[in-house]
Specification:
Chain lengths: 203, 116
Amino acid sequence: MSDIHAPIEYTSTGLRSTKLAMWLFLASECLLFGGLITAYVLYRGQSTTGPYPQDVFDIGYTSVSSFVLLASSLTMVLSHNAALARDYARMRLWLLGTAMLGLCFVGGQVFEFTSFVREGLTLHTNLFGSTFFVLTGFHGVHVTVGVLMLLILVAFSFRGSLSDDPAFPVEMVGLYWHFVDIVWIVIFTVVYLIPAPPPHGAV
Amino acid sequence: MSSTEHRTDPDTAARPTDPPEQHVAYHPSAREYIRVGLLLVALTCIEVMLSYSSLSGTKLVVALFACTIIKFVLVVGYFMHLKFDNGRFSRVFALGAIGAFTLYAVVLLMFRVWSG
């Protein structure tokens, strides 16, 4: 791991290189999730066997998951605010809250996946299953990585080994976390809320 | 919970040769963030109500996407600070987001996904 106390590096534009790299990474992630969402849309209504989206989706349950993720974005930004105010106790509290909400979301997703499998929908069942599990699974992995980053940040903070500007790493992890949230905002609409067309071949 | 002191390495202390910190010039208060959070919750409620409403077809899709875009902009603008941050960050992210949207919209049009 690089020395976290290393001198701050700036690009020739005067922008902090770590922050620019994070934004470039997030921009590239748009292409990754764009591809997965496109694959889902492309194969909507193309499955020849069930279960179909309307058989398995529970909008009420997924809405609660969405609220949990939105709440986690709020706690994340409040932890950054606390870090800027050098209120590190509150910063840690909000970071832990964000991690807990993230875990709730991932737990909810695991429960949802399990119930879908019980209803006969797996990665191999049909086109809907393949595209749905790959898209939401990738998102779930991103949330899990975010939770790990948050917990590492909290551990570093307790050890007192964050850089002399703790608001900066919190801001970087926050950018990643909020990105995961906006990806879910799009997934929630495209996958869950827009009604799927009738199954392939149905009159 | 006691506040742990953060060690400061004298080597990393601000030096006169360093460029000025590129921190966000303005940070909304916690109250403003909570207001944005409540707005996001309200928009999500509207989306869910729309999905249960009698609205269907193009009207429903347009209404849902309108809510989604507003939520997207609120999170990116306020929570990710792009509204208050250096414009270059906005341009970098817009390049990826708009580039991806354009690319995949063309792909979907090529496959005539919306041709009925």
